[in-house]
Request: fold
Amino acid sequence: MAVSLSQPEVLVNTTELHSAARTVPQGFTEADVTLTSPSGEWDSKAGTGNLTWGIEVSYDGSTWTRLIFQTLPIGSHSKAGGMPALGISRNDLAPGATASIRLFASSTTPVRVGALITAA
Amino acid sequence: MALAVVTATRIRAASGTSVTVAITAPTPGNLLVVGMNQYRATAANSTVTDNQTNTFTKLAEVDTTGDPGAAMFYAKSILSSGTHNVTLTCATSGTAPSGTAYEASGADTTAPFTGGEVASNTGSSAAPTTGSVTNSVADSIFFAFCGNGGTGNPATMTKDAAWTRHANGAEQDGTLYMVFGMEYLIVASSAARTHAWTTQNTAFGTVAAAFGIAGAAPPATIPVSARAVLQAVNRAAVR
Reply:
């Protein structure tokens, strides 16, 4: 079951940004979170700094815990040459809980990126 | 307490040299065993750490300049409180860390891995195998990990039928992540065991290891005094 949680391209800098939160639906099993770069800054600013990004989860709507995250050089690509991605599974969340998830990102150098979460 | 797998958490990053995951909250005192795959590592210096001051000991690592670099780590009698983050960090030149963190109960809390009960292998075959591992403690749990250079989704990673794979014990989306399979086998006798997979990509690295149950009797030894008596008896018999 899909969790629609796209993040429009935004300028990411030292202040941590978050997407709108979405409730995790019943039947959710696993998903991929992929960075996007419609304006191409991910490549044009390659090597200029680092991006820290990932997924946060909350069970009360106010306290957020990082579920999966990483810091990587701006311009990094996957082994197939694609944009960076992270994988999350239902088992990573507390089973049966009413959970909400959101994206977060910050960077050492301003860069415009987005992100998209899709059911695997 | 019998040996058992409690849960497992899958860890996947398509890029970068490290990734941190909040694993399913483990029970303090249990055993964590982490299998890790990575892309094109050139040095056997990958690490696993956590935010709980546990020490993860590397059992073996097989890095290649080809696609996969496999490694296995364990932390005994773990501490765990609050959010338990586990971080996989690739070896030199390696990227895209992936793997599974298994939590097992019932393992010895002081010396679950007594040494020598590990084997690694690397090569090019569509039927990757581990080396042979013989458990010194009869009641043991084996873990076997295969890092593969598979592509496509799903990439083939078929396990040996005798071994058990947790739902989070494999990654088969080779279009995004490094492919792997990690299984376990609980046994009640000492014997040499191996694990074989079937894959579509031939580049592989494997690690297998055995961990003993808590409270197992140490291997039988003859006290020095008894040994001296036996030697005296034998000498007398020869005369």
Q: What stands out?
A: The interface with chain B takes residues 32, 34, 54, 57, 65-73, 76-80, 82-87, 89, 91-92, 120 of chain A (CB under 8 Å). The two ends of chain A are 9 Å apart (CA to CA).
